[in-house]
Write a structure and sequence with these properties.
Helix content: over 70%
Number of domains: 1
Number of helices: 11
Strand content: under 5%
Distance between the termini: 64 Å
Radius of gyration: 18 Å
Order of helices and strands: HHHHHHHHHHH
Length: about 210
């Protein structure tokens, strides 16, 4: 029963359509049909031409993950798997929002908000890699994708650190690795289209250089 409670809690909180509601209210825009069509902070900022709106979406989407984890820890303070389950469902419903025809954001803010509480190593490594790539390439989506892949690999090869810095402490490293794998797969799936676009653009640039 506890697993069902955690899954439902995370799913409902994660499904709050932040970007869609804010853009509709403030700009009268359906974000699903504007810009990239992504219901997240980056597209909200670009479509609205407002950093404040983008930041607001980012903060609320982060809180969805944080609350999913925090509420479960209040009731089940000694089990890592339960808040991890709630966060996974929160990210899933954010990425594939049931109220928006299963269209949603890319899940990074929601994932970060929750992992800060239960597995802070994950967002810490991700942020370091993201900034390094962004400084070099000045491309947000490329930084996102690279950080997802490198962070996943780093977690796989740092079992002792994973176990030490999980809160509540997990009963086994395998649970942490499984949780991380599912989370990273969800995030990567939502970045497949941007990745295709990056590859296409690089090919076009290479083709022009060869001419």
């Amino acid at each position: 029963m506890s697993y069902l409670i955690c899954a439902v809690t995370g799913y409902l909180l994660g499904s709050f359509p932040t970007g869609y509601l804010i853009l509709k209210r403030e700009k009268g825009i359906d974000i699903r049909h504007a810009g990239s069509g992504n219901v997240g902070a980056l597209n909200a900022m670009e479509v609205s031409n407002s950093k404040i709106i983008g930041l607001l979406v980012l903060i609320i989407d982060s809180l969805k993950g944080l609350l999913s984890v925090y509420l479960i820890i209040l009731f089940f303070p000694y089990e890592f798997v339960l808040p991890a389950l709630a966060l996974t469902f929160a990210v899933f419903s954010h990425c594939f929002n049931p109220w928006l025809g299963f269209n949603g954001g890319r899940g990074l803010a929601t994932a970060a908000g929750g992992t800060i509480l239960i597995f802070p190593v994950l967002p810490a490594v991700w942020i370091i890699i993201w900034f390094a790539v962004f400084i070099l390439k000045k491309d947000i989506l490329l930084a996102n994708i690279t950080a997802i892949i490198v962070t996943f690999v780093a977690v796989l090869f740092s079992e002792e650190i994973d176990f030490r810095y999980s809160f509540p402490h997990s009963n086994s490293v395998s649970i942490i690795l499984f949780f991380t794998s599912v989370l990273m797969i969800l995030l990567f799936i939502k970045h497949i289209e941007p990745l295709k676009e990056i590859i296409k653009n690089n090919k076009d640039v290479k083709g022009k250089d060869e001419k």
